[in-house]
Amino acid sequence: MARKILFQQAINEALDQEMARDSSVIVMGEDVVGGTGGNGEMDAWGGVLGVTKGLYGKYGDRIMDTPISESAFVGAAIGAATCGLRPVCELMFIDFLGVCFDQIYNQAAKFRYMFGGKAKTPVVIRTMIGAGFRAAAQHSQCLYPIFTHIPGLKVVIPSSPYEAKGLLIQAIRDDDPVIFCEHKALYAMEGEVPDESYTIPFGEANIVREGSDVTIVALARMVGFAQKAAATLAKEGISCEIIDPRTTSPLDEDTILESVENTGRLVIVDEASPRCGMAADIAAMVAQKGFASLQAPIAMVTPPHTPVPFSGVLEDLYIPGPARIEAAVRNVAEYA
Amino acid sequence: MARKILFQQAINEALDQEMARDSSVIVMGEDVVGGTGGNGEMDAWGGVLGVTKGLYGKYGDRIMDTPISESAFVGAAIGAATCGLRPVCELMFIDFLGVCFDQIYNQAAKFRYMFGGKAKTPVVIRTMIGAGFRAAAQHSQCLYPIFTHIPGLKVVIPSSPYEAKGLLIQAIRDDDPVIFCEHKALYAMEGEVPDESYTIPFGEANIVREGSDVTIVALARMVGFAQKAAATLAKEGISCEIIDPRTTSPLDEDTILESVENTGRLVIVDEASPRCGMAADIAAMVAQKGFASLQAPIAMVTPPHTPVPFSGVLEDLYIPGPARIEAAVRNVAEYA
Amino acid sequence: MALSREDLLEAYRRMKTIREFEERVHVEFAKGGIPGFVHLYAGEEASAAGVCMNLTDDDKIASTHRGHGHCIGKGVDVHGMMAEIYGKRTGTCRGKGGSMHIADLDTGMLGANGIVGGGPPLVCGAALAAKIKGTGGVAVAFFGDGASNQGTTFESMNLASVWKLPAIFVAENNGYAEATAAKFSVSCEDISTRAAGFGMPGVTVDGHDFFAVYDAMREAVERARGGGGPTLVEVKLDRFFGHFEGDNQNYRAPDEVKHVREQKDCIRRFARRVTSEHDIAEQELAAIDDEVAKLIDDAVAQALAAPDPLPADLTTDVYIKY
Amino acid sequence: MALSREDLLEAYRRMKTIREFEERVHVEFAKGGIPGFVHLYAGEEASAAGVCMNLTDDDKIASTHRGHGHCIGKGVDVHGMMAEIYGKRTGTCRGKGGSMHIADLDTGMLGANGIVGGGPPLVCGAALAAKIKGTGGVAVAFFGDGASNQGTTFESMNLASVWKLPAIFVAENNGYAEATAAKFSVSCEDISTRAAGFGMPGVTVDGHDFFAVYDAMREAVERARGGGGPTLVEVKLDRFFGHFEGDNQNYRAPDEVKHVREQKDCIRRFARRVTSEHDIAEQELAAIDDEVAKLIDDAVAQALAAPDPLPADLTTDVYIKY
Ligand SMILES: Cc1ncc(C[n+]2csc(CCOP(=O)(O)OP(=O)(O)O)c2C)c(N)n1
Ligand SMILES: Cc1ncc(C[n+]2csc(CCOP(=O)(O)OP(=O)(O)O)c2C)c(N)n1
Ligand SMILES: [Mg+2]
Ligand SMILES: [Mg+2]
Hints:
Distance between the termini of chain C: 49 Å
Number of helices of chain A: 11
Largest sheet of chain C: 5 strands, parallel
CATH superfamily of chain C: Thiamin diphosphate (ThDP)-binding fold, Pyr/PP domains
Bound molecules: thiamine diphosphate, magnesium ion
Number of domains of chain A: 2
Oligomer: heterotetramer
Distance between the termini of chain A: 48 Å
Shape of chain C: globular
């Protein structure tokens, strides 16, 4: 049965159902319980924004607080995964990858290859992405292009509560290392989510809106902005098809290429930094494989090549919004 | 006066001349001296491949061995840069960025922006890139797309002894943080290098070979491979223009776009992993800004989306070589 | 080098300024005027002041996410700080950094830091620069009990020791890292125990007592300036507010904060001692209180009235030249 | 739990196998047949054997760039190893990993590692898995004096301690990290001193003495299996070869290696002791020597004759499913 719940509840529910189903699933991270070692309540926080709240009461020691030692505990999750557990490890903000990145890209991502196919590392790293919280340069980044760059990792970026739950369950059951990116500005998004357990396969894009004039590819929070823009543009007579890849590695190239075949025009909207970013990655793929379909330059709508500013007026300019998407679509639609 | 020296001598000479010229230039890294604390010779190694050999004799304590604590000493180089020195810090292999990345992308890269323009961080991080040494998955990566992704960093990738010297001197004098990538397979390359000091500005591509049919963009070791391919293709009547961007951040977009305007065809050759990689970045830029010139799909010649294998037979297949470049060029040249 | 009357009044002024600043930010945050994540330093003032009273403008400090106190202790302008916290163009960082990134290189404040453990490596560099340039300066890394478990912190202590740097590591142990108790996350009783593993002296002091902090720091600074290498100073103290603004602190015992505020207020303790032992009159302190109150009022008023950054500011200050 | 005759012979066999393996790789490398970076373990055999003789197949180890000895100590097949070092399809990792990445999960060998300090976090995970699954297993992190300064190593010791994991940290202090002396890079006399900062027992033992290593490890393993948490065991030893093959070792005193080989050979010391104190005949050891020599000959011959990986292998084994 589907009911409306928040994105963050969808995450919680996915964890809950998988922990109930499979005793090898464990959860760890900074304050994912909260209160460990103190004189107050346990499960005091359930994650810095409350996403894992309540799991401690049900699963006790299978959800564990950690010291602030990301290399050690992310590495521990990875090591435990090679030894038969299915850890879901929280890296609070993706911005913190710099203090534990080696364990992810040199260890987890490469074990299977380096060891000639003998290792299996079913670890999930859940992490918050994105701007919009006035959290400034070190707590607002997207950075998933960096993980997408690395062979051996899978990268998942849900844009709705429905996808959050289905993709997270898939991530936990998946036998490869998965980076699961949760946009903090989506936590409060409400949407229909089945109460039973279900999975969404990786590498299958979602066609969020069908259209015939311009293809928009968008991820995470940008999907909603693209929808807003598309609604406005529809009134102007421009029909947009919106594709949400949902996973950037693997990437569903076919769905994007098919759409561009129909529309001939492509706008990619991404909140990550532009250089060697996700928008560039998709643009390059289409410029290689879908060139014959293209009737206009590919447009990329991204933030500028700057850190994320603190001040609200600047941050709002930094984040690609519906207005910039509309302008980009109009541009490519008019191109002849 | 120019004479022929090796790529690694060019690096050494650049360091030597800058240390002589400016007492605020210091060098640090693991075994950049070699022998510290021991019972044998000092300057025992001069870097793991001997690149910094001899500097200790001239500059004493201005070149320093470090413990294996990349976060601490890379961070120290960065901190010292904010306090008036010009450190050149060696991260032995770029593959090790995972144990010190935070200091680079969250600290050095963002200081100036976060601090409202008040900080200056003139640090250079020298690091070895690339495959070909049978050094396997953790000592053969390119990874510069990750640095290129980060606003606030500059990324330099020389392809010849001449460029190594001029770009390194520029990097040391530059007031922004610079990642200086040295392909280990180029160290033994010989080339003409002026003995006096000179700089090569960042963001100015080098047109390595002029041509009219197909533009090839290549970096580092791939420049030589592209030249080989171009020589073969010339005999077949295909005229290639080869562009070496030399710095990926800033990127000289104009030179690439102008070339594509003339040729209408673009092949990008890069040794980095393909997803969100440098080839994708350049392809996307041209698909946005040079679309009208393009007469064929953009071709990317890169390694597959896999870690670097150990076995020589596999590694040779992994690395993009002249044969694959030729095939890609023929393909786009024939496209109609 | 006993503290003069002026020094004591200055120490009081710094502590009081921190306290007023933080209490006021707390109030303003609750009103909704202040954006982002804000971590308050109230309760820990004796540490910032006790440390920084030993430093000059040539000395450097690196701070943490909980940085306001260190800034004020090191002499950063309060008006600029308040404007920064509001994201205004007149802020210390022109509105681009916010509470977690206030830096002021002129006063030797190398920056608050959003990354736990981000500061200690930078401090090694600042200390190295002082050593190489022969300035006689020292550099101080402030970090919390939580940060004491970060690899960067350990590495930095080792590096400072092997390079014999004029660096001082100040572990502010307030018992919690977010909602996790140090009793759990730090695997030894006193963080200062770890100094032995890095061949440096380590000491634990009562952070509610300005004088204890000051004295331990004086010794450490003297050692550093004299070429004796680094020291680890653990300061045990308590925070008056939650981890960040909005934290309900249910991981603390119900009466914990009340008890701390009543029994362990470093400023009241300081005031009692200097008025009884140091020939300082209560009125002198009261006068400072008034001045500080006005200063903070004024800082808030000016911050509120200040202009936002300009749209063009979005893309400046990324590089010096690109 | 005294060692039986069989145990002693087995310990000898493992040490001798490591020695022969490494001496032979040295010779073959010089001939040019072996690609890549190769770091030899010869001289340190008593550590691998002394540690691993306390472990079962259910226990896990994580190793370093200098991993051959740990592999053999833990029971990885020597033929597979040799083929791997030659990059052959019959290698332990089908030629994709090479010397620096040999792993064999079946025998509990979680991998050599090209990243200094890469192993300790993984060992925390292996120990956690044992703890959660209640297998009674332990996990051992081998790391060098150089790696003892890596943040990951410190963090892992703290994590293992706060989670009370059945983990053991074995610091193999051979005096050098590449060309840099531990005397410089490690800021305390004994690495085991650092244990106190992580609330765990720490001990330093003579790594030229198999029995010293074995006994210290036995205690640590018992503690870990009994729920008593982690231990730091520092093993002081010497390497017979350079950091990697091709190293001229000019950072060592001119006669250092000669002295070490003559005076500090752990295998000869072991042989002397077991033949004099343990009722083991020299011929028994000689018989093992012969077997081992044949084994290594055979491993090299087979490796040389083995096929290279197939071109299609380039793109397999990246993901289980993509
Ligand atoms: C690398 C990193 N990990 C986690 C965080 C999230 N975080 C911010 S403050 C904090 C707790 C810090 O505790 P402590 O060092 O004791 O300082 P305190 O807040 O008590 O002053 C955490 C976990 C972070 N900012 N950076
Ligand atoms: C993170 C990282 N930094 C540096 C290196 C280069 N490196 C490989 S081995 C080594 C020395 C290691 O010394 P130690 O830990 O003492 O081990 P040993 O070689 O003596 O066995 C170094 C610096 C690396 N592989 N990884
Ligand atoms: Mg704390
Ligand atoms: Mg060593």
